[in-house]
Amino acid sequence: xxxxxxxxxxxxxxxxxxxxxxxxxxxxxxxxxxxxxxxxxxxxxxxxxxxxxxxxxxxxxxxxxxxxxxxxxxxxxxxxxxxxxxxxxxxxxxxxxxxxxxxxxxxxxxxxxxxxxxxxxxxxxxxxxxxxxxxxxxxxxxxxxxxxxxxxxxxxxxxxxxxxxxxxxxxxxxxxxxxxxxxxxxxxxxxxxxxxxxxxxxxxxxxxxxxxxxxxxxxxxxxxxxxxxxxxxxxxxxxxxxxxxxxxxxxxxxxxxxxxxxxxxxxxxxxxxxxxxxxxxxxxxxxxxxxxxxxxxxxxxxxxxxxxxxxxxxxxxxxxxxxxxxxxxxxxxxxxxxxxxxxxxxxxxxxxxxxxxxxxxxxx
Length: 364
Prior knowledge:
Low-confidence stretches: 167-172
Distance between the termini: 64 Å
Radius of gyration: 28 Å
Strand content: under 5%
Number of strands: 2
Shape: globular
């Protein structure tokens, strides 16, 4: 596909995303996020291609100046050549990143060149991870996908005006068959066909923004509410384990026990130790792993930092910058993930044990 065709694809995907967001349903919100992420990936790709072309031009200039420098007397001032190399010439690693298929590496490159900010890089990376998770495992994070998609859309419109020329400035008309009804909504038209030389990216982006539904929830507040829900769930699950644990363990002992059991299980899985509990050989394998793991095992949490988590959730909601709020939320979720996963797994195991005991008493 040509750069112009990709540009039209970007606009059509962003338009379709706004149409999906008119219906507040998990499936529509998910599709909108996927469409926006596809559009952003295309923008990033083309800007990396622009960077490569610029690098080629500066490389040729640097070689020409180096040829001149070789004619200078020994010890001459070559600082002008250093300035070119430091500022404009890409390293081999940067060129591989620009030409590669890994979005994170491309984002790192664009951030290092200050084409995008650090927060923009983080937001795109996080949103892309959500998109991949939704794409592979289905509906998830329903409470935050819609506001994430809305903010991602606004960022994509900003990137559309900033990143590269995106193939809008072409001589003559576009190939036949490219003047779709959606294209005509966003580009200047004469006698039914877009007038490509008169296209202004700011105008296109403005029309896209105006098509975004007004009722998209505030991202910072949505993330705060989601974080608080995760914290409350972790506390309620731990309270349930604490209240119902058969051994009558105290808080600190219980936290140590459930973390040990989770880490032991992960180590057994890592070593492919599997079997049925009544098999003596399986029991010996478990005991061997326990004996090897226990001396070097460290308990990660001796208490639940519930209040600290709530303070971080409040910071997320108070953030006026939605990109910063997304970063704070991601950091909190990663910080909570280990212990909340341990608690959730233990609560599910305890619930299953209680159900089995109940069934046993009923003679099932």
